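Entry under discussion copied across for reference:
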Amino acid sequence: MSTNTPAAQVERHACPKCDAPAGSPCRTTTGKVAASYHTGRFALVPALKAELTVKTPADRNPGKAWTAGAPVPQVPDAIPGAVIRLGYARCSTVGQELQSQLDMLARADCTRVFSEKISTRVKERPELEKALTLAREIKAAAPNQPVVLTVVEMKRLARSAAELMTLSSTLQADGIQLELLSGPLQGVYDPNGAGAIVFAVLAVSAEVEREGIREKTLEGLDAAARNGNVGGRPSVVDDDKLAVARARHAKGESVTSIAKTLGIGRATLYRHLGESA
């Protein structure tokens, strides 16, 4: 194998994930040759950091039992290369579109983009966790390598102060920066530096905005109620149906039979008959 191939460059380093020594391919937990080199390993090669996947060559027998290769001298720690941007896009419902976010992330030169359609009220967001996991792997292999989690706007990550503070703690612990592509705080923030203050401000702002929306909604419902407009779905039992039901019930017909004929639930009919008694 040529010493200039991506695989040869990767194997000049020991793997920080599977402990394969320099000169050997990566191995799986079952003791076989891995089909691809682990991310944390090839992230140590500046020229390959943007690849995020390097296949194990055929002469290393991927899928076969792992054996150590000829040892080679390990190279010094890699000099940090260009910033690695990992993009994340999210919208709340299937009916909303993601493409505008994906386009902005592509223009921001994100090496890889993770996206999903899921509400912020759902605590488990698989694609966000995948993005954070990949960022951690890169930082673990190359601690001095700048890694940035890029989003179009803060609300794509979280809506509550608690969620934002949890995310801030995660990014701080792993040395991952955050980039906002739009909004009043557009820019890149290092949570271990001055960016920590920005995270706190963002958290409070998100909570205040959410509380404001809630208060306006409650005020609107209260005003509508004072004007005789009650929120919720319209009743399935109108005055005409109730009049028919009362007349038939007065003649001795069972509630079950009346409800079936009128196409309404028995419990619903019982409630309306009781209210009109």
In short: The chain has three domains: 1-77, 84-210, 239-276. The longest strand covers residues 84-91. Residues 239-276 form a domain with the Arc Repressor Mutant, subunit A fold (CATH 1.10.10). The two ends are 91 Å apart (CA to CA).
